Structure formats: structure tokens, C-alpha cells
Amino acid sequence: MPDLTPGPSTVEVVSQDVRHDAGHDAGHGADHRFPEAAEIRELLDQLRRLVLTYKFGIDEVMTKISILRDEFRHMQNYNPVEHVGSRLKSLESIVAKCRRKGIPLTPDGVREKMFDVAGVRVTCSFVSDIYKVRDMLTNQADLTVLEERDYIAHPKPNGYKSLHLIVQVPVYLSDRVEHVIVEIQLRTIAMDFWASLEHKIYYKYARDVPRHLTDSLKLAADVAASLDSSMERIHDEVTAIAGAEEPVEQRDALLTPEEMLRNFWSAAEVEGDAPRGSRQD
Ligand code: GTP
Ligand code: MG
Fold first, then answer.
1. Where in the chain are the domains?
2. Which of 197, 199, 207, 209 to mutate to test the pocket of ligand 1 (most atoms within 8 A of CB)?
3. In this structure, are strands 177-188 and 118-124 parallel, antiparallel, or unpaired?
4. N or C: which end of the chain has fewer CB atoms below 10 A?
């Protein structure tokens, strides 16, 4: 299969992680002749199959988060995860990114150099929850962390904050195991609110945002951070007072489990007295 990436060869340089040994130089020695229709069809087929493995990678991570969320809620009477979303990069965006970054447009090129085909975004209420969820996830034996970028401890100059993890999860296919890379972004609700507004503005102004707006966004990011810490302080105070509350499931139920079982047995006693032949379904 020829490398179908046209244009100059550039290598994405990424420091402080394992990406540097992710393979050969992008575009190096590329065969730039225009491919045959059959080759294009074959490549498309291969890329579609590859993208499917990323969808399975998302499914694996979503299941992990959903289990943590449910178990945490049940055991601790607390939910550290407000919302979880995912997105699979479209074939169109994959091709565009290969072109932009000089990544060979081949399954291996994408596998080795593109780390955001599969994306999962976890929104938490509080900053401490982000690190809690991070720890719970990364302590799982089948999940390998390839990279962590902490834009909460080190925000981007524009004010962007989030914790980014690039992880690898095994996906068991019919004939092999694929180790799929998934980008996980963890943020608070306030960080997410800020990022979606900034994203809209960035694209509205075709990446050339006027100075007064970048200044306002930076200020808004500081206000969002201050809201996050105030909310967390209040939450901690209330939690300390509320102390050992009953688990949500039990508190919300109309009957305690003991009452429920007592009712069950007394109903069974009454039904035991019922005339024979009465239907019990
Ligand atoms: P690419 O830009 O996709 O090549 O990724 P990267 O290797 O530069 O990673 P980076 O951590 O900069 O960004 C990855 C993702 O985080 C982006 O695709 C966005 O979803 C999000 N992100 C990063 N920076 C910003 C930002 O300044 N604003 C917003 N709204 N989102 C951002
Ligand atoms: Mg970037």
C-alpha cells in the first residue's frame, strides 16, 4: 500500500512521553504517485476497519468509567462524574489531520502518530474528583497511560484547563487483540463551559481572535477557576457536617431493606392462608 500523503514531510515533535519512538518519520520516502482506484478502495476499507477498533476502544473506556461511577455512587453515596461523552474522529478529519501534520495516510501511520481518533470527555463537579477518577482509571491493570498532560496545574496561556490522558486499552477482536489509543479529557463543569465557549470563538474568528476577546476569555478562565475552588470549599464543608449519611439508594427508597423484607414475609403469611387454587402470578 503506498503512502498516500502528499506534500512535505514533517515530524510531529512531542516531548515528555513515549510518542518519540512511535515509528518512522512521517512522509519519509513517500510514494507520491496518484494511486489506482483499487488502491484507494483498499485503503478506505483498511481505514474504516481501523476506525472501528477506535470505536471499541471508546466502548471499553466508557464501560470502565460507567462502572466506577455506579460503584462510587453506591458505595460512597457520592458521584464524582457529572457527565461522560465521547467522539470518534471522522474519516474526513483523520485525512485532514494526516495532511496537516504530515502523518502517512496509512493504518500504521494513524495508529502510530494520531492519538485523538478516539476521545472520551469526563466532566466532574470538583477538581479533586478529576484526580480521583484519574487515579481510579490509571490503577487498572489493563489500562496503560502513555502520556498525561496536566493543563490544570499548568494552564495554557489562553486559560485552557483540563487533565489530558493518552491511554491504551486492549480490545479483543475475533482474531486478535488490538491495543487502542484513547484520549481522555477530564474537566470540571466550569472548565468545560469555558472550553466550549473558547472553541466557538476560536472557530468563529478562524483562529484569529481579537485581542479584547482573548483578554476577556483569560479573565473568564480565572473567574471559572475561582468558582471551582469556592464550590469545592463549600462542598467540603457541607460534607464534613453531613458526615456518615446513608447511601443514596437506601435514603431514596420509601422503605428500608428491613421493612421491605418484613412486609414480604407478612404478605407471604397472608397469602399462605389464601384458598387453594388462587393464582399467584
Ligand atoms: P492536537 O492539537 O489535536 O494535535 O493535539 P495536541 O497533541 O496538540 O494536544 P493538546 O493537548 O494541545 O489538545 C488536545 C485537545 O484538547 C484538543 O483537540 C482540544 O479538544 C483540547 N484543547 C487543547 N487546547 C485547547 C484550547 O486552548 N481550547 C479548547 N477549547 N480546547 C483545547
Ligand atoms: Mg494542540
1. 9-243
2. 199
3. parallel
4. C
pLDDT score, position 47: 96
Report H helices in 77-184: 91-101, 107-113, 127-138
Mean pLDDT of all residues in 104-124: 97
What does the alpha-carbon distance between residue 163 and residue 217 come to, in Å, rounded to a whole number? 19
Our answer to whether residue 258 is catalytic in this structure is no
Is pLDDT of 253 > 90? no
pLDDT at 250 over 60: no
List, as own/partner pairs, every contact residues 154-157 make where C-beta atoms lie below 8 angstroms and the sequence separation is at least 24, other chains included: 155/221
Q: Give per-residue pLDDT as tens, 137-155.
A: 999 999 999 999 999 999 9
46 Cα: distance to centroid of ligand 1 (angstroms): 27
What does DSSP assign to residue 105?
S
Considering only CA atoms, which residue is closest to atom 23 of ligand 1? 160
Classify residue 62 as exposed, middle or buried by CB count within 10 Å of its CB (0-12, 13-18, 19+): middle
- Closest to 25 measured CA to CA, from 90, 108, 89: 108
Question: Ligand 2: distance of its center to the CA of 253 in Å?
Answer: 47
For residue range 262-274, list pLDDT tens digits in order: 888 888 887 776 5
Ligand number, closest to the Cα atom of 160: 1
Query: Average of pLDDT values for 249-276?
Result: 73
Please name the residue whose Cα sits nearest to atom 20 of ligand 1. Answer: 185
87 lines ligand 1 (CB under 6 A): no
State yes or no: pLDDT of 168 exceeds 90. yes
- The pLDDT assigned to 257 comes to 82
